[in-house]
Amino acid sequence: MFNLSLQELLQHLINGLTLGAIYALIALGYTMVYGILKFINFAHGEILMVGTFISLAVYNVLCSTATSGMMIIVFFIISIIIAMISSGLLGVVIEKIAYKPLRNASRLAPLLSAIGVSIILTNLAQIIFGTKDQRFAYPYNNDPFNLFGISITPTHILTIIVSLFLMVILKFFIDKTKLGKAMRATSENKRIAALMGINVDFIVSLTFAIGSSLAAVAGILYALDYKAKSTMGLLIGLKAFIAAVIGGIGNITGAMLGGLLLGLLETIGFRLFEILVVSIYSIFGKSITGIPLGLKHMVAFSMLILILLIKPSGILGKNVREKV
Amino acid sequence: MLNLLIIVLIYICLFCILSLSLNLIAGYTGLLSLCHASFMSIGAYTTAIIMTKFNADFLLVLLLSGILASFFGIIIGLPTLRLKGDYLAIATLGFGEIVVNIIINWESLTRGARGIHDIPTAKIFNYRLMPKDAGILSKVIYFLLILIFLVLTYAFISKIIKSRFGRALEAIREDEIAAVSMGINITKYKVFSFAIGAFFAGIAGSLFSIYFLSISPGNFTFNISIMILCIVVLGGMGNNFASILGALIVVPAYYIPQLLNIPFIPPQFNQIIFGLILVLMMIFRPQGLLGRKKPDFERIIKRKSFFIRSR
Amino acid sequence: MTLIYTKKLRKEFGGVVALDDVDLCIEKGSITGLIGPNGAGKTTLFNNITGLDKPTSGMVFFNEKNITGVSPYKITRCGIARTFQNIRLFKEMTVLENIMIGRHFKSSHISFSNNRSLNALIGFFNIKKEENDIYRTSKKWLSFFNLDNFHDELAKNLPYGRQKELEIARALATDPEILFLDEPAAGLNPKETDELMKLITKINELGITIFLIEHDMKLIMNISQKVIVLNYGKKIAEGTPNKIQNDPVVIEAYLGKEE
């Protein structure tokens, strides 16, 4: 019945952790912005996409002059840094222009504005970078090596290490530094934080900058294995947002947890679901080989509906009640 | 030239129906629904599937499409009852993606991503319509048919809005806690709002099917949902006439360049305009071009009704 | 007769006990006051009776009927109406519309038949009559509060004091047996508070029981027949205004112990 070997399970585990790490990095941006402004930055996915394309452009341009493998790796790192900076800037600019004027408006207004921004970005990217999918050539030899029968690529390792590194730095920054404390205070209560002398506008900009640059890194890591396209922002962004909700929106650890969880659910979880479906079909005498891979995306959406039904504040979230 | 005019008019009418129905959900009840195109797709696919398999009278199929879309409206309405604005928006977005996903993957029913392209023309009271390409006259007939349904939709929605039903919806939008403390059954009205809004979206989808005789998942994307939302926001949320106005502005702007094949305007340009409309409207005129219309009670109660009983 | 009584009403938020086994009763036709230091649980008590919050344990009875944990809209339909500490008007709607919302659930009782759904269906074809009835009744309340001139004004544009009156008008439009007022005098100057006192008395004379939370001692002591005192979620005293004002436990709660 269960034709799932330990090896396949471990393979899915690696894939899931890698994917989950990417989701986690993106989810952090959503959760930090929500924590401070109680607002879902709908355009976060598009900022990710722009960062990815910028890095791609820089990388391709630089690499045309590369003469050695070492240079390619250096150029890769440079392109990542440039992408992080530009995404961070983009996030700050968008906030100042499209969100800040609406801070005191109805709940709907900033959301609709964010939707507008995301549409503008997606279509601008299509005009500038074209509608075709773009490949991110590996800056290193991506041949997988075999470890206990599971194949691990250098990209897997890179993704997990880089994500872990960034998340640890972020956690340290938030928990141990003065600026991080200011961010936490602002997300608790914006008004009081301002009264305490915290420059709320600066904190908000900082939050957007950090979230956006992390997203750029995530986008690049994603584009290495998959493709970069102008519409990637919507799907990945949405899924990462769902991950943030699952973990508990507004909660940094929750975003990391939610991201990893979603990554694992989309790989291991989906495979287990597939086995279940095949088994059920065979009980009824019909044999199917599997379920369409396209249904993988449903995992995220189904989890969203589930968590919103059971515990909307997420796994690690607190129940914030509206004061009557 | 006349051809172009009629096609644009038909698009306008369809989007009017769509925006009126979204206005009910988002404008009046304040439920930001980002999956309106999905309700439309359910109506469209229901019509397409039934008509390619059976030889049914179109009016029956139309009704069925609306009802099925309405049913899905209830399905999305119920679990999202307790959700606040942003969460609700994302949930509807997720729902929309689920519907698209199912349509693409359930090949045996919907022929997947390819779509259904051999829809037979509609049969109304045993009179079979000619396909739209059969000439100007047949296009005009379709336009009139769709216009009739637009008028019916407008009349129905206007009527229920001008009553305590509409007031209850607006109360829910303004302040749920206050509304519930005034004895309004919020659950019932939110679900009703979704059900009715989805119903008319399904109708629009059904009309789309029998006019174009060819549908695919790409006709009902998230972009379409956004376009409908844009129309509602531009016109003014919570104002029926404004939804019509919005459609009159947005639809020609979107489709005329496409239909005329203007070479140097890429299709993305239209989308960028939409995005800008959303952002700018929210910053400078969130109530839309027309804003909410204050009800004129003297007019509403002026004529005595049929069934009035003396007290 | 007792209109409302609670039995060991308890509300806990995680580890915090907001209501600590509160037993109280409110007599029909009376004006009962509820006082206590900030954070004592007064609004929480309101919320737990009116259904906006579900008690952790304990029971609430209205007209001998157990209404514990019932949905708030149903409780309002039973005859309990309320106002809010931070005014909750329907801001983008007109003054008249706000009051008309109070009449909302009354309309399905316009008697075409005994069946509410049938009424609703007939109502669809008979919107004009429904609206007529709602309109006329709402206008009466408009006049009662002297808000006639504002009927077409958006609620958010009203001066603060008038907004508070509108909220009361809206609550009264539901034809309640009892009206819960949550700090109706907050933000009012002494003259306005006097007017409020007269208004509450006028409403009470219509036969409507009043239960009000207030910090303005002059208002409460002058108008209430009975005062209940809450502190840290517990009822610490109950009685006539005179008795309460001289109760050492109450004084201690507000002013602290004498060193």
Describe it.
The complex is a heterotrimer of chains A (324), B (311) and C (259). The longest helix of chain A has 32 residues, at 6-37. Chain A starts with 5 loop residues before the first helix and ends in a 14-residue tail after the last helix. Chain A has 324 residues and is mainly α. Chain A has a two-stranded antiparallel ribbon with strand order 1-2. In chain A, helix 1 packs across helix 9 (232-247) and helix 2 packs across helix 9 (232-247). Chain A has helices at 6-37, 44-63, 69-99, 108-129, 154-176, 178-188, 190-195, 200-225, 232-247, 252-283, 296-310; strands at residues 145-147, 150-152. The radius of gyration of chain A is 21 Å and the shape is globular. In chain A, strand 1 and strand 2 (150-152) form a beta hairpin. Helices cover 72% and strands 2% of the residues of chain A. The model of chain A has no long low-confidence stretch (mean pLDDT 88). Chain B is mainly α and 311 residues long. Chain B is 70% helix and 1% strand. Chain B has helices at residues 2-28, 36-53, 58-77, 85-105, 107-110, 136-161, 164-174, 176-181, 186-212, 222-235, 240-260, 267-284, 297-300; strands at residues 123-124, 127-128. In chain B, strands 1-2 form a two-stranded antiparallel sheet. In chain B, strand 1 and strand 2 (127-128) form a beta hairpin. Chain B is globular and about 55 Å long. Mean pLDDT of chain B is 86; it is low at 303-311. Chain C is α/β, with parallel strands linked by helices and 259 residues long. Chain C has 2 domains: 1-79 and 176-259, P-loop containing nucleotide triphosphate hydrolases (Rossmann fold, 3-Layer(aba) Sandwich); 88-174, P-loop containing nucleotide triphosphate hydrolases (Rossmann fold). Helices cover 39% and strands 24% of the residues of chain C. Chain C has helices at 42-50, 72-78, 95-102, 116-125, 127-144, 160-172, 190-205, 217-223, 241-245, 248-255, and strands spanning 2-13, 16-27, 31-35, 57-62, 65-66, 80-82, 178-182, 209-213, 226-231, 234-239. In chain C, helix 3 runs parallel beside helix 6 (160-172). Chain C is globular, with a radius of gyration of 19 Å. The model of chain C has no long low-confidence stretch (mean pLDDT 89). Chains in contact: A-B, A-C, B-C. Chains A and B meet through helix 4, helix 9 and helix 11 of A and helix 4, helix 10 and helix 12 of B.
